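Hi D.,

Good news: the full-assembly prediction came through. Inputs first.
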Amino acid sequence: MFVINKQEGLIIIGGAEDKKGEKKILKEVCTHIDKNSGLLLIVTVATEKPTEVGNEYSNLFNNMGIEHLSILHVENREDALKTENIELIEKASLIFFTGGDQLRITSILGGTPLYSSMKRKYTEGCVFVGTSAGASVMSNTMIVKGMDDESPRKCTLKMAPGLGLINGVIIDQHFAQRGRVGRLLVGVAENPETLGIGIDEDTSIIVNKENVLRVLGSGAVYVIDGSSISDTNVSEQHQDDMLSIFDVKMHVLKNGDKFDLKTRRPFI
Amino acid sequence: MFVINKQEGLIIIGGAEDKKGEKKILKEVCTHIDKNSGLLLIVTVATEKPTEVGNEYSNLFNNMGIEHLSILHVENREDALKTENIELIEKASLIFFTGGDQLRITSILGGTPLYSSMKRKYTEGCVFVGTSAGASVMSNTMIVKGMDDESPRKCTLKMAPGLGLINGVIIDQHFAQRGRVGRLLVGVAENPETLGIGIDEDTSIIVNKENVLRVLGSGAVYVIDGSSISDTNVSEQHQDDMLSIFDVKMHVLKNGDKFDLKTRRPFI
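Then the structure:
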């Protein structure tokens, strides 16, 4: 018998999920929706190639047996006011944000009726999924831009307010592949109250209602906990200096590992 | 009879509040605490001159009749673990953040037991006041650095996660004096869900439990509402381009004006 996992409302993917082989992550996404009756809505607002990207995911999910699929194209703020687009949100059981540019998502949707509908749907149990830019945007404060393959350097990180579907974390994606530990460390050092979560490509975290996440995918998930930081020069002058951070804690989680965001503890 | 205003839990000051003349804002602060029994705690973590700044405010409040005053010096993360410092937070009726560097506040306090105590105290009704850097830090996402006296230009704004005592807004301070409308517009365009609030020097907003703010002080408070933005190039390429934003809404509020953060409407 087909059982939908109703306890897990948020799936965050580090980009470049497998689309040709086993497709483990996309298959997992399909277990969060009733294949015969639920509407899976693909939101392409992040990308400047909405048709191409939308069709690719639509074909993938269709081949996995999802019967009801729609693509929501929102290319500008006017589109986010249209009744037919808001109705699509209202009908959706699962909303999937593609990759692209995270600032496109917030700058086009922020403060619109469509965004209000999304937030309400989330509280009502609609499952939200995001990959790449769609992953970054899930937290309250999101990384927009930073140096890849660089040690942490002050003032190199650009952040902005995100969608706020998950609190107390900063998400980064394409993590090992683009050498992003430096930039995530800057974010955590700036406010160690916030956990840094770096997700590799073809890797995802699935977050349940109790704020416990589990890892699914072929890569790793890095959790950076700054609460133990004993000293850092992040706030001092000389912007171009390297950042020093003492005693930061990091967890590297693999497929199947879990992490409790409330207690900040990993477990199996 | 002396009445404490228990309905207003957050006072956010745009910096450089009058300390020699009428001292309207600091006097207002004193109406939020029982002068004879409440402990007013001055938190100097933002500044690199904690003794000087702490003593200045301590003398000011003492001359206004506050009997119980303490200064909390937290100069590094180790200080934020000390029992005696946490006890000071526990005893406080009103916590006053001085100016300085907002990243010092979050990078030193974030993820520490002292910060947890503060957040709990806030939910229990302890009044929080912040001026300048202490103002910026109040929101979920805070402005750290940006260009003063400049038109909005992309990628010139540095933000980071703040203390999160007020949701859905970005606060900016020394607003007209340092020509900061450009940088606040960038922040709002990046996510128009977030209201921009720019507070002039010697000007404050006092926020009540119903998320209604009132303005007190000699300058203006600018509320930038991006929900009406019809188009912006904020998310597109070419980082050094000027930012274009169409149809942004702005309110300029003066002493006594009110603004409902829920409905996004000003009133008198």
